[in-house]
Amino acid sequence: MKVKGSVVFVTGANRGLGLAFAREAVARGAAKVYAGMRNPDNFNEPGIIPVKLDVNDVDSIAAAARAAPDVTLLVNNAGIAELTQEHFTEHEVEQARRFFETNYFGMIRVTNAFHHALVAGKGAIVNILSDATWKVVPVLSPYSATKAAAWSYTNNIRALLSEKNVQVVGLHVGFLDTDLAKDVDLPKTDPRDVARQAYDVVDAGGSEVLADAGTRAIKSTLSAEVPAYIDPSVV
């Protein structure tokens, strides 16, 4: 499908990557752009319609789907992350449970809510994933698990929805230059560039975005005898 003329809904769109996706959709000529967020009261962006949305609240999701019944392009961006310092403890279990509720179950809930509109419009879904799916970073292990699960979900719904002419794109990326990673002293990618790459792939009818050099390097080792997820030093 084409972003121009589409009706876009971006979750977690009040800032960072989600806001970059919403702004880029406007710049590309989307017919309408909805921005899902937990608190839309003070949101004011030209050409972007704020919609109250909490991906952990089924009633909130249902209300958002009713408010935006014409969506043809869904960007599942909402997510949470934090470092894990207490491994092999109940704290790690509770942290993983919180991450899965938002990063995995939240993605499924929102996709389910917009499924019929996307099928009717022969639309597209962009799921924001991570290089952490394949990268060994122990302080991100619960977060990484949620992204690995979301990758599997993305691949499976792609197979299901291809029969209904709905495009499914998985976007893998490392650290972004946003508030979420402001304290991380590592190379970061501009979220505006990530949004542009993702929409280019949507326009081209593609299925996957590897949005930075580090992600591409890690992905290239997956078929190696010793991939990066076994020996991180190979990249």
UniProtKB/TrEMBL annotation:
Family: Belongs to the short-chain dehydrogenases/reductases (SDR) family.
NCBIfam families per UniProt: PRK08264.1-5
Highest classification ranks of the organism: Bacteria, Pseudomonadati, Pseudomonadota, Betaproteobacteria, Burkholderiales
GO cellular component: cytosol
Keywords per UniProt: Oxidoreductase, Plasmid
KW Oxidoreductase (keyword) present: yes
Protein name as catalogued: Short-chain dehydrogenase
InterPro entries: NAD(P)-bd_dom_sf (IPR036291), Sc_DH/Rdtase_CS (IPR020904), SDR_fam (IPR002347)
Xref: Pfam families: adh_short (PF00106)
GO molecular function terms attached to this record: oxidoreductase activity
Keyword Oxidoreductase: yes
Organism for this UniProt entry: Paraburkholderia largidicola
PANTHER family on file: OS04G0390700 PROTEIN, RETINOL DEHYDROGENASE-RELATED
